Amino acid sequence: MVTERNQTDAVWNHGVMDVNEVLLPGVGLRYEFTNRDGDRIGVIALRSGDFEVVLYDEGDPDESRPVFRLSGAEAETLAQILGAPRIAERFADLTREVPGLNAGQVEVLENSPYAGRRLGSSRARTLTGASIVAIVRGEEVIASPGPDERLNAGDVLVVIGTAEGILGVERLFEG
Amino acid sequence: MGVSVAFLLEFGLILVVLSLLGALARRWTLSPVPLYLLTGLALGDGGIVQVPEAGEFVEIGAAIGVVLLLLALGLEFSIEEFTTSLRRHIPSAGVDIVLNAAPGALAGWVLGLNGVGILALAGATYVSSSGIIARLLSDLRRLGNRETPAVLAVLVLEDFAMAAYLPLLSVVAAGGAWWQAVLWVAVAVSALAAAFAGSYRWGHHVGRVVTHPEAEQSMLRVLGITLVVAALAESVHVSAAVGAFLVGLTLTGEAADRARAVMEPLRDLFAAVFFVSIGLLVSFSEMLPLLPAAAVLATLTAMTKVATGWYAASRDGVARRGRVRAGTALIVRGEFSIIIVGLIGRQEERLVPLVSAYVLILAVVGPLLTRFAGALSPGLRKQAR
User: Fold this and answer.
1) Integer-rounded Cα radius of gyration of chain B
2) Do A62 and B321 touch (CB under 8 A)?
3) Phi, psi of A8 (to 5 degrees)
4) Which residues span the membrane (chain B) (predicted)?
5) How far off is chain B from A41, nearest CA to CA, in Å?
6) What is the pLDDT of residues B95-145, one digit of tens each?
């Protein structure tokens, strides 16, 4: 398609999906991709930090139909909603490439000895050899948490290690 | 210190009127620029009300307004955007210059203007209003459209052409010889290149100076540096406007964002004052006889801009309706055309009233036309099915 070749400033292949990047001088950047249903979707990242999401019609491929606009904070929230459940999956992909390495999720229950305490106090890595690489807290994801990170009941820990190591972390947090 | 009650009252009332008109313009997705010009007209010689006390401040404020407008423009730029636009749209820029500067030059010749007048009028018909158009595209929700990058690229290249054109014009207007003009254009262009190179290598140092956690400090530093550089540029005939543009270019990334944020309210105030001051220069009685000429020129150059947009969009593989949208979006002339005549001032008697009328027409008609061209497409789409 002529349109795309001429307009695209960069194409990155994200997994199985091509994302076109188009520069809008003085305004910002536009990302375009096609979803599984064949909808052509555009996301405009404005200099101001706001975002705009548009759809392209079949009738006039050059005209976009505005879907919605997001402020910077709203876009952040949306990204977290979309991103949080995928974190563990992505680690799962990673571990598939290293034999013997596994990823698991451990929930910090109400009666866990470490609920309300610092992550470092569990000495999880020293005791089990497995690493806690992220904490999923509601919509929020804390990537590579430090030892001073306080754990809450309901947090989900993303753990990477051997199968025994992950089991060890589970036992540790069950108390 | 005695406070002039008359001055405070007059200036305050001007701002109140401007805010009311601005709100009205926003409601109709129009640009406030023509309304500010009209306000100036109404306040000038032979206008409805006189503002003798505020006049002097408006004049000084106008000089700051031009500087801040150009600073803001420079802040918008990045090397990447410029090179990308240049790579893809240099033929569009050529078409743009030829199609749109020629009618202005021709009109100047027909009207019997002097050389400076012809050069200024050519510039005024050439340059579209990047400020109004970028805002318009966002308001009309067209940023997602395929023709939009082409439109924005044309605007970026025009703004850059201005950096060479403004010193040329100011030297010629000051009565300099052609070789002097060429020399100063060369100086301006090398300064531009130096600013680009500088911003690439040392931009973060300059950035550190102006990004202060306190907004007040940031604002004072940016404004101070800009005014000093503008003054230096003016003293060597490169035009204060170009100096301010260079400062804007040197700031990139986070520093540019910061500068934009702290300077925005100031720029809005002084730019409004600048447009009012241009209106003040003109009287209705001067403008009336030039109105037909302005209308003819406006019609002609509206068509040439549509052709320019059509061509630029077609280079990006955009279909017909998108090309019409791109062409009509480019029609608007605004702040730059006014800055150009502001440089010439009263050297050529008819130039200020002519260009003011011209900008008044196109700044109102342009947004309406492009809106109409966009609204046309749903009907066409139904027919196509």
Assistant:
1) 20
2) yes
3) -75, 130
4) 6-26, 57-78, 90-111, 117-138, 150-171, 177-197, 268-284, 324-345, 351-373
5) 10
6) 999 999 999 999 999 998 888 899 999 999 999 988 888 888 888 888 889
Nearest one of B88, B116, B122 to B103, comparing CA atoms: B122
The first and second tokens of residue A72, run together, are 């910077």
Helix or strand run (H / E) with residue A126: helix A124-128
Residues 6+ apart with CB under 8 A from B95: B307, B308, B311, B312
Query: Which SS3 state, helix, strand or coil, does residue B48 take?
Result: coil
Structural domains of chain B ordered from first start: 12-20+31-49+58-373 (1.20.1530.20)
pLDDT tens digits, B211-268: 777 888 888 999 998 999 889 888 877 778 888 888 888 887 778 888 888 898 898 8
Cα–Cα dist B226/B102, whole Å: 34
Burial class (CB in 10 A: 0-12, 13-18, 19+), A143: exposed
- C-alpha span between B163 and B184 (Å, rounded): 11
* Sheet order of strands, A140-143 included: A102-107, A156-161, A131-137, A140-143
- What are the mean pLDDT values of chain A's consecutive 10-residue runs (175 residues total)? 50 68 86 87 89 84 87 86 65 66 84 87 87 84 85 87 87 83
Q: Which amino acid is at B220?
A: L
Distance CA B239, CA B248 (A): 15
The two three-digit tokens of residue B229, written as one number: 């550089």
User: Which residues on chain A are in Cβ contact (under 8 Å) with B141?
Assistant: 52, 54, 64, 66
A contacts of B142 (beta carbons < 8 Å): 64
ipTM > 0.85 (yes/no): no
Distance from CA of A107 to the nearest CA of B (A): 40
Q: What is the pTM of this model?
A: 0.74
φ, ψ (nearest 5 deg) of residue A107: -90, 140
Instruction: State whether residue A64 sits within 8 Å of chain B by CB.
Output: yes
pLDDT tens readout for residues B176-213: 777 777 887 787 778 777 777 776 677 667 777 777 77
Which candidate from A42, A54, A62 shows the least CB-CB separation from B318? Answer: A62
Helix (H) or strand (E) holding B35: helix B33-43
For residue A5, list chain B residues with Cβ-Cβ distance below 8 A.
317
* B101/B322 Cα distance (integer angstroms): 24
